[in-house]
Each structure stands twice: as C-alpha cells, then as structure tokens.
C-alpha cells in the first residue's frame, strides 16, 4: 500500500484531516477505538490479522491483497439517523466499484444491512463503531473490508464470498479503489439526511427485495424462511412469514441468507 500516494491524493487536497498507515494491525476498527483520532482520519493497513465483521465473525484477508480500513468522521445527525451512515457507506462503495469495473461482467448488488455483493457473492462488508453519542456531532468509525485481489478463500466461505480478481481475472490497484471510494463518499454526504432518496437508491440495488430468503434469529439460531417485503426508513427489514404474518427485524436480531 502506497501511503504517500494516498496522502497526496486525499490529505493534501484537504479531503481528509490525516491518514494513519499501519503495515500490520489486529483491526483498524480496534485501532480507531483505542486512539483519539481527529474527525476525517483514515486508518488503513496492508495486513489485518484480527478483522471482524458483524456478530464478531472473522474477516480473513491475505497480506497486501485486499482493503482493510476505517474512516473516523463526525456527523451532525440524530441517534435515529445513525443507521443511515451504514446504508450510505455501502451504497457509495457499490457505486464506486460499478464505475471501476465498467466493461467487465460484474453484477454488483446490496445485501441488507450493509454487504456488497458481486455476482451474488459477498465482496465487501462494513462494521460501524460509535462514540460521543450524546453530543450534537456523533463520532462514527466506518470499518470497511473489500476483497480485491484475493484468490484464496476458506472452505466455509468459498461458495459465498468472492473478489474483484476472481470475477474479472484482473488485478486492481488498492490505492485507486481507496481514493475513488473516499472521494465519492465525501461528494454525496447530504444523502445521509435525505432518507427517502438514500433508501430509494439502496433498495433499487438490493438483491433480495421481493424474494424468498433464509434467515436465522440470533436468539435461537433457528433457520426460517420468509419473503422480503421492504426495508423501512428506520433500517429494519420487513419480512412476510409463510403463514402470512409480517414482522420487522433490525440488523442485530437476524442473520440473513439469500435463497438461490
């Protein structure tokens, strides 16, 4: 990872306040949480040894092959709007990757609550950390993991995860993706408080609205089946069970799968 180039393209023009490059770290999110960082600071690493996704799941990444980073930023939003940052971050990554992969056979989509899929397999995920929730400005750490040039996936995720390289047979410069993504992220920030437009765009790229899905309740791990009816403004997923009953779930309540 060329940190000097990232500084030149993101910090020098004033887009970011600072960039912290770590050759190796356990987790960029954990680093951001443990250190007092200014708003608009990007923490990025070439080797992440203990990356985590939702529910503490390990995010495996070969050294120097993928993007593992955390953006620390203050947002003037209410507590009820925090989930918009998650939806916004994943939507912008989808748009960024679509532009970078134009010309390839690459079908990008979104999976609730904040995964990016490529050809129906997971290519990226987000994990948000929060601080100073009582303040007018909410400090949010946006953790991002993107499988870019990864070729080796463990047995458990071999058929559900992929990378840009595996789908296009082309190697991508990590720095170019980071620069494009951060630039795009800062260019449409007003979408975070324009919930109607944000959710409309997100849902139009969603892989499972109007489809039957499998899901597990985290309280009992029982696998169930339901029809995805909608994603509501509060970020919850509205499901219709086989018996016709409707219920809304938040991201911390269920784990979602997509039925092929």
Outline:
With 260 residues, the chain is an alpha+beta fold. It has helices at residues 3-11, 28-34, 82-100, 164-168, 174-187, 195-204; strands at 18-25, 41-48, 67-76, 108-111, 115-118, 121-131, 137-146, 212-217, 223-231, 237-241, 246-249, 254-258.
List keywords for this structure.
260 residues, alpha+beta, BirA Bifunctional Protein, domain 2, SH3 type barrels, 2 domains, 7-stranded mixed β-sheet, 5-stranded antiparallel β-sheet, 32% strand
**Structural class of the secondary structure composition?**
alpha+beta
Helix percentage: 10-25%
For the secondary structure, the number of strands is 12
Highest-level CATH class of the largest domain: Alpha Beta
- The total domain count is 2
In words, what does this structure look like?
This protein has 260 residues and is an alpha+beta fold. It has two domains: 3-204, Bira Bifunctional Protein, Domain 2 (BirA Bifunctional Protein, domain 2, 2-Layer Sandwich), CATH 3.30.930.10; 212-258, SH3 type barrels. The protein is 25% helix and 32% strand. The strands form two sheets. Strands 1-2-3-7-6-5-4 form a seven-stranded mixed β-sheet, sandwiched between helices. A hairpin with a 5-residue loop joins strand 6 (121-131) and strand 7 (137-146). Helix 1 (3-11) runs parallel beside helix 5 and helix 3 packs across helix 6 (195-204). The longest helix has 19 residues, at 82-100. It is globular. The N and C termini lie far apart (37 Å). 34% of the residues are buried.
